[in-house]
């Protein structure tokens, strides 16, 4: 299989790379320090059509595919992971569930504004006792007189409390059945909750180690009432829907990881060629040169992994294994490259104005978000025919 980019994809990659270098990178340190989401940059991304890349033109999108979305995410992540994850989560976790499972009316209502970047949507899965273990979900939704009444909390939800957030899709327990062995199986259902709905409270943003400009909040639902038609997909299919959402999201997330690893590589190469010690560039030292060679190898492997998964996704082929492989390889590449780049920079590597320092802080979440390293290993093991977890 070849992964050569089409002329249109090369043009998109180059345009986003130029935008990242000339618009995003110069502002990254300022917004990281202020911990603010740069709405003017998001607006420009909307005008470029980045939020609408994988959606049809008739719904306000660009009519491109998932590879194109991943190309854009990777280029942004080179210089600012927060901006990249705002796009990745806005499309993959926010808009895509509506596109994949929504009714025609729901698509017509939400996709155009999300595709244009005028609004953001969030995906409310994680709770204090639920995330990797969806069976731990405690948020409930009960039908009452044609409305869902929702109670519960969510945490670590990206794009959930920004000035342009308009929608959160949540998973909630809508019923229970007792198995023959006496155990209880929860019925999980996905429901659309518009921002500003009475009883829906966005709690104060987290004080995070990294991703400082990414919008992340806990959410609280107290007798929140939304129409029955806000059901997303079929009742009781929430588990299958969010598994599909996470599988697809991991492909774009892997591209984000690759971009972070690439950004560290580029910074390390620049510094190794320009920093002189004992009368010659530090890159002349074999240890530095070999370290950078390993960094390049990691980027190469990570990029091939996400390209493989994205091509399979676009072709309608099974891609669960490849998505987890890409996410695992990419996240470890980003973390390893961030560590190595910081070491190459020495004291300068721990100065916050240095992009490498930001990557060092940001990259740890890549081994946790959208499925931890341990979850990816479990998925891979199961796809290979092993249980993947103790029973």
Automatic annotation (TrEMBL):
Necessary cofactors: FAD
GO molecular function: acyl-CoA dehydrogenase activity; flavin adenine dinucleotide binding
Alphabetized InterPro entries for the sequence: Acyl-CoA_DH_CS (IPR006089), Acyl-CoA_Oxase/DH_mid-dom (IPR006091), Acyl-CoA_Oxase/DH_mid-dom_sf (IPR046373), AcylCo_DH-like_C (IPR036250), AcylCo_DH/oxidase_C (IPR009075), AcylCoA_DH/ox_N (IPR013786), AcylCoA_DH/ox_N_sf (IPR037069), AcylCoA_DH/oxidase_NM_dom_sf (IPR009100)
PANTHER family attached to this UniProt entry: ACYL-COA DEHYDROGENASE, ISOVALERYL-COA DEHYDROGENASE, MITOCHONDRIAL-RELATED
Residue ranges of domain Acyl-CoA dehydrogenase/oxidase N-terminal in the record: 6-118
Superkingdom, natural source: Bacteria
Record's protein name: Butyryl-CoA dehydrogenase
Assigned keywords, A-Z: FAD, Flavoprotein, Oxidoreductase
Residues of the Acyl-CoA oxidase/dehydrogenase middle domain: 122-224
Pfam families in the cross-refs: Acyl-CoA_dh_1, Acyl-CoA_dh_M, Acyl-CoA_dh_N
Biological classification of the source: Bacteria, Bacillati, Actinomycetota, Actinomycetes, Micrococcales
């Amino acid at each position: 299989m070849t992964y050569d980019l089409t002329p249109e994809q090369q043009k998109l990659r180059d345009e986003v790379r130029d935008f990242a270098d000339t618009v995003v990178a110069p502002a990254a340190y300022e917004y990281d320090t202020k911990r603010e989401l740069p709405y003017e940059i998001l607006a420009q991304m909307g005008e470029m059509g980045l939020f609408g890349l994988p959606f049809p033109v008739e719904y306000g999108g660009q009519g491109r595919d998932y590879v194109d979305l991943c190309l854009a995410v990777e280029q942004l992540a080179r210089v600012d992971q927060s901006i990249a994850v705002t796009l990745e989560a806005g499309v993959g976790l926010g808009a895509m569930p509506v596109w994949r499972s929504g009714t025609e009316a729901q698509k017509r209502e939400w996709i155009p504004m999300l595709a244009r970047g005028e609004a953001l949507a969030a995906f409310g899965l994680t709770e204090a006792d639920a995330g990797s273990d969806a069976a731990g979900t405690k948020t409930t939704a009960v039908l009452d007189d044609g409305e869902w009444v929702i109670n519960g909390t969510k945490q670590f939800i990206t794009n959930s409390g920004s000035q342009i957030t308009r929608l959160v899709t949540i998973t909630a327990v809508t019923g229970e059945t007792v198995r023959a062995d006496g155990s209880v199986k929860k019925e999980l259902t996905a429901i659309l909750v518009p921002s500003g709905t009475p009883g829906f409270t966005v709690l104060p943003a987290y004080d995070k180690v990294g991703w400082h400009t990414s919008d992340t909040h806990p959410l609280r639902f107290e007798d929140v009432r939304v129409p029955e038609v806000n059901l997303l997909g079929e009742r009781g299919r929430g588990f299958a829907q969010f598994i599909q959402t996470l599988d697809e999201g991991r492909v774009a997330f892997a591209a984000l990881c690759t971009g972070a690893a690439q950004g560290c590589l580029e910074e390390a190469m620049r510094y190794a060629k320009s920093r002189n010690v004992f009368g010659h560039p530090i890159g002349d030292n074999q240890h530095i040169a070999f370290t950078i060679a390993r960094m390049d190898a990691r980027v190469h492997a990570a990029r091939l992994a996400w390209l493989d998964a994205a091509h399979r996704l676009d072709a309608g082929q099974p891609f669960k294994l490849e998505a987890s492989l890409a996410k695992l390889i990419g996240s470890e590449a980003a973390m390893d490259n961030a560590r190595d780049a910081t070491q190459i920079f020495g004291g300068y590597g721990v100065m916050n104005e240095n992009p490498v320092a930001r990557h060092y802080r940001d990259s740890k979440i890549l081994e946790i978000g959208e499925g931890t390293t341990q979850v990816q290993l479990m998925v891979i093991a199961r796809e290979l025919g092993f249980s993947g977890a103790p029973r």
